Amino acid sequence: MFRFILRSFAILCLGSTVACSASSAAVKIPSPATDEPAAKSKGSATVVLAGGCFWGIQAVFEHVKGVTGVTAGYSGGSAGTAEYETVSTGRTGHAESVKIVYDPSQVSYGQLLKVYFSVAHDPTELNRQGPDSGTQYRSSIFYANDEQKRIALAYIDQLNQAKVFSQAIVTQVVALKAFYPAEAYHQDYAVHHPNEPYIAMNDLPKVEHLRQMIPELYVGK
Fold first, then answer.
1. Is 215 exposed, middle or buried (0-12, 13-18, 19+ CB in 10 A)?
2. CATH number of 2-10+42-215
3. Would you name the residues annotated as active-site residues?
4. Which residues pair with 97 in a beta bridge?
5. Are 153 and 33 in contact (CB under 8 A)?
6. CA–CA separation, 36 and 12 (whole Å)
7. Which positions ≥6 away from 143 have C-beta within 8 Å?
């Protein structure tokens, strides 16, 4: 995968006096005008999102209030091709994704989308995020039901109408057919490799953006 090649470049960058972080800047956005009703009791719900390398997306959502679990994996293709090296060819239909399990009494689906659009990735980049390029890095919301679809489409329209981004949002909103967990060594990658140049340049800044820009949803670990 291209990000492994990037690491050598990243080491050079970190040793220079030139700022060359590949992480995209976060954007302050409004909360969704359309959202699911607040749950009155503790429960569990799931959302699957894709937005570039799953290492960074997982790292961000593990710091979101009400999130009880985040798994890196693949969505959009078949079970037979849900394997890292094969997905990395960009020809499987899969996107690197994360499955987020959350408590709707603590955080809403719309609030999770606010984190997703604001700090977790750049929704205006087509088939790429930062240094990573290919359809496997596309921006995509895999909805599990009609309510998730309705809220996601309404929020995208709200953000486009407000012109909070310099370009139109290219995020796909498609039905979730299946989610396949990634290999064990991809799980919590940023937690286990915080000093790796790719993580330091691209993923840890996203967690810091969450803490600074949406503090009401941030939790430390």
1. exposed
2. 3.30.1060.10
3. 53
4. 50, 73
5. no
6. 46
7. 149, 152, 173, 174, 175, 176
Average of per-residue pLDDT across 10-31: 53
Whether 75 has a pLDDT exceeding 70, the answer reads: yes
Please report the pLDDT score of residue 24 as a whole number.
55
Average pLDDT over residues 187-204: 96
- pLDDT of amino acid 154: 98
Which residue(s) pair with 45 in the sheet? 102
Element (H, E) at 172: strand 172-175
What 3-state class would DSSP assign to 142?
A: strand
pLDDT at 121 over 90: yes
In the chain, domain spans: 2-10+42-215
CA separation for the pair 14, 213 (Å, rounded): 25
Sequence-separated (6 or more) residues with CB below 8 Å from residue 28: 118, 164, 213
